[in-house]
Design goal:
The structure is a single chain. With 194 residues, this protein is mainly beta. 8% of the residues lie in helices and 27% in strands. It contains two helices and eight strands, in the order αβαβββββββ. The strands form two sheets. A four-stranded antiparallel beta sheet has the order 2-1-3-6. Strand 7 and strand 8 form a beta hairpin. The termini are far apart.
Length: 194
């Protein structure tokens, strides 16, 4: 019901984590965000695209990566509450609007967190306190969801195998910026029409 279901097209058996031998890959339209066919403003491309127009990876790209790599991986993604508040504005036929930061307005009591991992278990820790461990085999879509208090500080995911930490990912509240300095790399520009 939250828009996160049926996204991975059955590349692996969710209980054994073994690849199905009849799956050769996955087609994604498109890897990069683009202008056009995006729905109403402010949508650009699709939330299922892997890379923003700025060239940075989207949180969803880590989910896709967990489906095709055996290198231990875990990534935290936060469902943007603005998306739920005005879903029509963001288009209704697409996946979740996700961010990977821990800078949220205090008006939200809790946040929906997703952890993407290819390891059998994930423990979530908020400001040094464990929020528990969840097991990948209990999530057929390979998307582990959490309801987490919106508390500034550090949220950390530990991907584990047989109790041993194999990979980690952390988000930290940034605090106030002190200042920004811009320095030009040149004093004049050639008006060449290029």
């Amino acid at each position: 019901g939250d828009g996160s279901s049926n996204q991975w097209f059955g590349t692996r058996d969710y209980q054994t984590n073994r690849y199905f031998n009849y799956v050769g890959g996955q087609f994604i339209w498109a890897a990069f965000d683009y202008l056009g066919e995006a729905g109403p403003w402010p949508s650009k491309g699709s939330r299922k695209n892997l890379i923003e127009t700025t060239g940075f990876r989207k949180p969803f790209s880590y989910y896709i990566q967990t489906l095709y790599t055996d290198t231990p991986l875990v990534h935290i993604a936060v469902a943007d509450p603005h998306f739920y508040a005005d879903r029509q504005k963001y288009g209704g036929f697409d996946w979740l609007s996700l961010r990977s930061d821990w800078d949220w307005s205090p008006r939200y009591d809790s946040l929906r967190i997703y952890t993407f991992s290819n390891q059998p278990e994930v423990e979530l820790i908020l400001n040094g306190k464990s929020l528990g461990t969840k097991f990948l085999k209990d999530y057929p879509e390979r998307i582990i969801s959490w309801e987490v208090p919106n508390t500034p500080g550090v949220i950390k995911a530990l991907a584990k195998r047989s109790g041993k930490t194999m990979a980690t990912h952390m988000l930290q509240t940034t605090g106030q910026a002190s200042h920004l300095v811009l320095v030009a790399d040149q004093q004049t520009l050639n008006c060449s029409g290029e």
